[in-house]
Amino acid sequence: xxxxxxxxxxxxxxxxxxxxxxxxxxxxxxxxxxxxxxxxxxxxxxxxxxxxxxxxxxxxxxxxxxxxxxxxxxxxxxxxxxxxxxxxxxxxxxxxxxxxxxxxxxxxxxxxxxxxxxxxxxxxxxxxxxxxxxxxxxxxxxxxxxxxxxxxxxxxxxxxxxxxxxxxxxxxxxxxxxxxxxxxxxxxxxxxxxxxxxxxxxxxxxxxxxxxxxxxxxxxxxxxxxx
Length: 227
Description:
five-stranded antiparallel sheet; disordered C terminus; 7 helices; single chain; alpha+beta; elongated
């Protein structure tokens, strides 16, 4: 199956949503057991409101307004209560959570933050709790260009390596994706954080008798003047 291709300029929509969708797919492939409780409650509230609206319409059509006006009033009140509860559930309880699950008695919850239009950075808040230990929380971020190529295609491996390297629970479940120290050093060299000391190196060619290039040049000039 070909990798999804999206517009590289849709920061808050397609780039973020595609990344959000890839995260639970990766974790479930590592045998994380995903909890669907939040989704089930949201769907239950939404479908309940739709059912009430449908029954009210059917009763009014079959029995008429006079016979159903009191029931319609109760149905409208129930409908607004359910929609209010649904709104609170989405914004007050779920709060952007994209994965909740567990593995080896460790509870994991991931939540994305918003994406700034002028800063194409994916921000992820992770909370995990091992049995008998204090909860841990991480705030990590990385540019979308780390796992999206110039054509807008999502590349799963760099994204999975980033997660496994930054989140210990995922790294333990998928150690092969954890970035090695050698890779980290090379990336620092490429970014200019690490520089080799080449002050005594003339393009990799050693000087005879340990003389520096400037000393050797002065010696040649002295010999020419005496000759």
